[in-house]
Amino acid sequence: MERFKSLHKRREDARKLNHEQVVEEDRVSKLPSNFEAKRRRQEWELEEIEARKDAETKGEDFDRIKALNTQADVADKIDTSKRKRKNPDKGFSSYEAMSVRQYERLTNNLKPNMETYNNMKEVVGADQFYPTADTLIQGSHYPTDSSLNKLVEDVKGQMKKRDQYHRRRMFDPDSQVDYINERNRKFNQKLERFYGDYTEDIKEDLERGTAI
Fold first, then answer.
1. DSSP H/E element including 153
2. What's the rounded mean pLDDT across residues 119-138?
3. Domain residues for 189?
């Protein structure tokens, strides 16, 4: 009886342990896929907050200490990852912001010739080179031929880029006409995309019969 009671107790303990493991596995399976990474991230943030408080208490610069304790290759990887995550184009928010982005993009591509600039300023004079509302003579300095050519090339480049990004689909005169209007053309394209592989034989038979 003592042996039977011992075996019975071991069976109950095993059943209880098995039930706890099943419950734990079910709980883990219902967690998000990034739960462990998120938990480690939160633990790392808590440790960093505690270390920052400890450094402030001691009167030390936490960022400097952290940089000194970070390996160079790890720092390069972190910096590269930050640059990849940073999106300079935040999309359309307003026409004003779009104009500012366009202005910054165009001005960043400018490479002024400082030698020509300084020579022109010496010839004209600083007072006339930087006109104000009180300046009587306007147009005292003029662009050079190379600057004008550079402006022309830049304008042509902008026009070419606008043509490339034009959203309107151009009409192909060599394509087969199997539609009666624009709406029917788009509908036929959708049918061809989804059912073209299944109806190819039927379509060929109909065309062959019509030709005969």
1. helix 145-164
2. 74
3. 176-212
